[in-house]
Amino acid sequence: MAAATRTLVMTGATRGIGLAAAREVLRRSPDTHLVVLGRASSTVEVLPGLQDVSPHVSTVDVDLSSSASVDAAGVRLEDRLDSGELPPLRGLVFNAGVHLANALETTVDGYERTFAVNVMSTHQLLRQLHPHVQAPARIIVTVSDAHFGDLRHTGGTMPAPRWAIPEISRPGAFDRSGSVRAGRRAYVTSKLGGVHLVHAWARRLPDGTDIVAYNPSLVVGTGLAREAGGVFPFLMSKIIPLLAITPLVDTPIPAGHKLADVVLGVTPAGTGAYIHRTKATASSAESYDIDRERELWNWLEVVAR
What we know:
Blueprint: E1 6-11, H1 16-28, E2 32-38, H2 40-53, E3 57-61, H3 67-83, E4 89-94, H4 113-129, E5 133-142, H5 151-154, H6 180-202, E6 209-215, H7 232-239, H8 252-263, E7 274-276, E8 279-281, H9 290-304
Parallel strand pairs: 1-2, 1-4, 2-3, 4-5, 5-6, 6-7
Antiparallel strand pairs: 7-8
């Protein structure tokens, strides 16, 4: 086995497309040291299987809904990079995300959990780790075409996002926040926030460090719907899988291989791009609103202090 010459840090690598992508990256890039960021209870289950593919795998415990835990994980990574325990940092993959049955769950910091995990933790980790990234490098944020909020992209299963900073970071920000529909609105809004975040960071990262948004589109069997409530888990487990034989729907392994293509640079895309499955295309018109992008950035920077 070749020695590791590059580090890739990844969230959301313990199940679904993230786990499939992690395996594929290790298989195709044996000089990569993969650091899996996740709860210890989850990472301990997948570590042996990943190490069967490559010995260059380690874990860092983190609760992405806690800013203190995110900070501690970031510090741990910085220490390992600075000491030379890890080879140069060449990639970050923010694949973790939650989709809840309401918009009321509150983090230890007082934020709505969907927004905290799907947007705030990504920015916090990027803020900590981007000075350690060495070009050429690629950063990926997994988003969703649900951020369009229209019939074409969601089949009517999702409401449109509602953007209002900082209100959407607070529990109870949406109409009937205890409802399943509010949980879905919080999810699609957070995914719009992820695209805004990619655009904002693309303007600030140095040449040679690219950041892209990746939309896997509809993937069955990921476990994301397990907390979504309503009929959504039923649709994802019983109805949508019937479409898996069509080009419209992926299962975790092929979707994970597509994510690995993005991580490894096989899928061409410039910084700030939105990649739909296998090619760069346009995200929603709403996602290019620079004023919204700026207000999100400014608010996140204030919170980070």
